[in-house]
């Protein structure tokens, strides 16, 4: 099941790289669907999350004084290169990684699908996602919305 998730994540990262490879300079400056972030910023976020390890996540969260938004902002600043093409190349370099923050593995599917849409929709791009990936992403989001969300997040029954 783990290999299954990573195969889908890697395919989604590759598809996004292909979609972004021919963007014009002004398209990178378009606001993404993530408030306050451009398409370029959100790509830097995806680089950061692809590089995130369990220990690195905890360390970065502590350095951000346990402010998740501050942690994300710092990650974007760390991974955003001076040009979108450099950030895209950085994403290419990390696209096959299998590191993850301390979260359910299916959260990697959510990250790629949701942020893929956060980037594609403002650009007028479309993607048909694998049904299995969408179902698993929705199931995880539903489970995390349940009152037992924290035990699910921590991997406890």
How would you characterize this protein structure?
By secondary structure, this protein is an all-alpha fold. It is 68% helix and 0% strand. Helix 3 (39-51) packs parallel to helix 6, helix 3 (39-51) runs antiparallel to helix 7 and helix 7 packs across helix 8 (131-145). Mean pLDDT is 91; it is low at 148-157.
Largest sheet: none
- Seen as an oligomer or otherwise, the chain set is single chain
Percentage of helical residues? 55-70%
- Termini separation: 18 Å
Low-confidence stretches: 148-157
| Proportion of residues in β-strands | under 5%
Global Rg: 15 Å
In total, how many beta strands?
Answer: 0
Structural class: mainly alpha
The ordered string of helix (H) and strand (E) elements is HHHHHHHHH
How many helices in DSSP terms? 9
Task: Calculate the mean pLDDT score and round it.
Answer: 91
Question: Which shape, going by the Cα principal axes?
Answer: globular
Labels describing this entry:
157 residues, mainly alpha, 68% helix
Gist of the model:
The chain is mainly α. 68% of the residues lie in helices and 0% in strands.
List the helices and strands and how they pair.
Blueprint: H1 2-20, H2 25-28, H3 39-51, H4 54-63, H5 68-79, H6 84-94, H7 107-123, H8 131-145, H9 149-153
